Amino acid sequence: MPLCGSDLRIDPSFALATPAAQLPLQQPTKIVGWAAVLSFFFGPLGMLYAAIVGAIIMGVIWIFVAIATLGLGLFVVHPVCAVWAALPAQGYNKQQW
Questions:
Q1: Mean pLDDT by 10 residues, the chain (97 residues)
Q2: What are the boundaries of each domain within the chain?
Q3: In the chain, which residue ranges form alpha helices assigned H by DSSP?
Q4: Which helix H or strand E contains 88, and what residues bound it?
Q5: How far is CA 34 from the centre of its chain?
Q6: Torsion 63-64-69-75 (CA) sign
Q7: Would the pTM count as exceeding 0.70?
Q8: Ramachandran area for residue 90 (φ above 0: left; ψ -120 to 50: alpha; else beta)
Q9: What pLDDT score was predicted for residue 62?
């Protein structure tokens, strides 16, 4: 005889009859604007947020253009980094949904 309250044992048939709710697992998304802003201000280093392989490729191109044009070509290459970072971030988000 329990001293206080009632018997706290759970009926096993009750535990089997009520399955636990399964919540869908959502992967974190990448913010497209954040990817573009990072790569606009930091060039290929900012691209690491969205596309690692793209950042390495653009880093090599960025250095080559900087040397070949004495830095003037970066006015063209640098905004390309922002666009190139935004597209993979957007594709990653579409793939998640």
A1: 60 56 73 93 93 94 95 93 93 85
A2: 30-96
A3: 12-17, 32-42, 44-47, 52-68, 74-96
A4: helix 74-96
A5: 10
A6: negative
A7: no
A8: alpha
A9: 94
